Amino acid sequence: MANTYNTRTNSCTAPSTKLKKFTPHNHQQQDEASLPGLPDHIVQLCLSFVNPSLLYSVCHSWRRLIYSPSFPPFFSLYALLHHSQSSNSNSNSIEFFNFDPISSTWDLLPPPPPPLCVLLHHPSFISRNFSIQSVSFSHNLVLLAATTHNFAPALSHPLIFNPLSKTWSFGPRLATPRRWCAAGAVRGALYVASGVGSHFSNDTARSLEKWDHDDHHHGEWKKKSRLKDARYSRDAIDAVGWRGKLCVVNVKAKEGTVYNVDKDEWEEMPEGMLYGWRGPVVAMDEDVMYVVDEAKGALRKYDHEKDLWEEIMESEKLRGAQHVAAAAGKLCVVCGDNGIVVVDVLASPGRLWVVDLPIGFEALRVHILPRMSSPDFDFPARHSTSME
Predict the structure, then answer these.
(1) Three-state SS for 369?
(2) Nearest CA among 89, 211, 83 for reference residue 158
(3) What is the pLDDT of residues 256-270, one digit of tens each?
(4) What is the pLDDT of residues 310-364, one digit of tens each?
(5) Burial class of residue 286 in the structure, from the number of CB atoms within 10 Å of its CB (0-12 exposed, 13-18 middle, 19+ buried)
(6) End-to-end CA distance of the chain
(7) 96-117 pLDDT, tens per residue?
(8) Is 282 within 8 Å of 325 (Cβ atoms)?
(9) What would the pLDDT profile of 165-222 be if each residue is shown by its tens digit?
(10) What is the distance between the alpha carbons of residues 99 and 64, in angstroms, rounded to a whole number?
(11) Are 191 and 246 in contact (CB under 8 A)?
């Protein structure tokens, strides 16, 4: 199906055209009672046990109900996309999107408070991509690190998007803003480790900072045990939270280490874990760890008792995997030319399908978070392939 998607205009993006709004959420008229004869709170309690995709298809009032702040939110996909065109005007521009699996629609998120201008590509570094590092944290999307056009850290504070309120906010200032670092979350706390600032510093390259979720409004980053060396400052790394530990691997250099959050100590990574870490890794509910082999397109699950990775499935669609997110029994994998591939790991055998991206965009990062609330989606949208 042809797609005429164009993005909105801001200081970091190319000019755009106005888009058609997604109207099913935009009804102003009042429908009849959802279930005549029952109080609203009883109706909502009854409907909360029904699959939202079924409610969406029944009537407009139930459709609005599943997006209301009081209704239990279902999971949806959040993605950082960039313009795939090669022109200088937009090759470094990014957009934040939400894919609603119920309406099968992509929606633009509200823009961050200041225009976010980051460096993704530079002609002097043809083979180098300058990563944007983001983390799913306490049902929020958090941007932690990126690079500016003058090769400096782009973020002095975490930039946080709350899906339920559809608002951006800032976290506490990082003691040392950085880029090319290890970033992750475990047990309700955010961590950044290693990396570089505007210039290399051995102190920054060996540092570890922690921010507790309980201190969301008035907290600060706290320094924790230092790394043994500066070897993890050479690339952007996803630090995977798993069973009270933060697993850090530089895939290109085949170097790995584990941070024990209870002991505040860095430990040796098990040999089997490191050996099989051959692509992006994610931990479902911080308990079961999966890897997508970027070369073979194989999906594997880690067995900590045997210290090995057991293969679940292999698919051409998973080749070139760059980033992966997990929630509710599903993995969402950024796979370069294949877009975003969804894998249902609870199905036997595992099944997968592709979520089409808006035309003209490529995916950088993905996260699985609660859907945005509010019955009125006042942002441009396009239809696509459902996650369900």
Answers:
(1) strand
(2) 211
(3) 999 999 999 999 999
(4) 999 999 999 999 999 999 999 999 997 778 999 999 988 889 999 999 988 999 9
(5) middle
(6) 19
(7) 999 999 989 999 999 888 777 8
(8) yes
(9) 999 999 999 989 999 999 999 999 999 999 998 889 999 999 999 998 765 555 899 9
(10) 17
(11) yes
Compute the distance between CA of residue 372 and CA of residue 100 in angstroms, rounded to an integer: 9
> Which DSSP helix (H) or strand (E) runs through 145?
strand 140-145
Give the β-pairing of 298-303 and 308-314.
Answer: antiparallel
Q: What does DSSP assign to residue 23? A: G
User: In whole angstroms, what is the distance from residue 52 CA to residue 132 CA?
Assistant: 32
| Residues 272, 337: Cα–Cα separation, whole Å | 30
Pick from 305, 191, 175: which is nearest to 240 by CA?
Answer: 191
**Residue listed under structure tokens 């850290």:** 153
What pLDDT is recorded for position 258?
97
Query: What sign has the CA pseudo-torsion 178, 323, 219, 114?
Result: positive
The label of the residue with tokens 């993905």 reads 366
Helix, strand, coil proportions of the chain in percent (round to 5)?
A: 10, 35, 50
Peptide bond preceding 349: is omega within 30 degrees of 0, i.e. cis? yes
Tell me whether strands 189-193 and 182-186 are parallel, antiparallel or unpaired.
antiparallel
